[in-house]
Amino acid sequence: MARTKEFDPDAALQSAIELFWRCGYEATSMSDLVEHLGIGRASIYATFGSKHELYLKAMDRYAEMRDPLLLAELSQPGPALPAVRAVVRRFAAEAASPEGRLNGCFVTNTAAELAPHDPAAARRVEISWEHVETPLHSALVRAQAQGELPEDRDPRALARMLFVLLQGLRVVGKASNDPARVRDAAEQALALLD
């Protein structure tokens, strides 16, 4: 008869997200995971696989939690540009917050640490980035159709510029002691939408 798990795999995965997010992949050892998750090494392997597999599952869960929120923000009926502005300002506020300084963004951290040499992580990063850029593009197309965005603007190029800005805000926010840096950059980028 198979033994039942004596821990909640969802809670353990959430704990793994928190640890990987704070420390990164390379700096997190299996011993760290055992201690932080409060479960044995064998249980981690049996439930999640290797450390790398656990990291990829953590990335997937992070995306499941975060990506739908952005889509919901940008697909509300009515004027689209206020929603785009709100998203950019939210990213800037998060990047400048104490938690943003401590952790940064899990996906952005992964892009810098693993994506250049880890195809599975790079795929997940790219998918997550598409889940940011695509709703931005859709919102900007809608804004242009509604007369909020001038006809001579390219919604795809603007979406890409805003996407790159959002990732940059996260990197600079994590490394800088000056929250005005990210706020000023966000506001200057938003001025391009006028």
Question: Could you characterize the architecture of this molecule?
Answer:
Residues 6-66 form the HTH tetR-type domain. Residues 29-48 bind DNA. Keywords: DNA-binding, Transcription, Transcription regulation. It holds the Pfam family TetR_C_13. The protein is 75% helix and 0% strand. The chain has ten helices and no strands.
Question: Secondary structure elements and their pairing?
Answer:
Blueprint: H1 9-23, H2 30-37, H3 41-48, H4 51-74, H5 81-96, H6 98-103, H7 106-113, H8 119-145, H9 155-175, H10 179-191
Helix pairs in contact: 1-2, 1-4, 4-8, 5-9, 5-10, 7-8, 8-9, 9-10
Brief account:
This protein is mostly helical and 194 residues long.
List keywords for this structure.
75% helix, transcription regulation, mainly alpha, 194 residues, DNA-binding, elongated, TetR_C, TetR/AcrR family transcriptional repressor of nem operon
Report helical residue fraction: over 70%
Shape: elongated
Q: Mean pLDDT score, rounded?
A: 92
The largest β sheet comes out as: none
Number of strands: 0
Q: DSSP strand (E) fraction?
A: under 5%
**What class would the helix/strand composition place it in?**
mainly alpha
Radius of gyration from the CA trace?
A: 19 Å
N→C terminal distance: 66 Å
Q: If helices are DSSP runs of H or I spanning 4 or more residues, what is the number of helices?
A: 10
Uncertain segments are none
Series of secondary-structure elements, N-terminal to C-terminal: HHHHHHHHHH
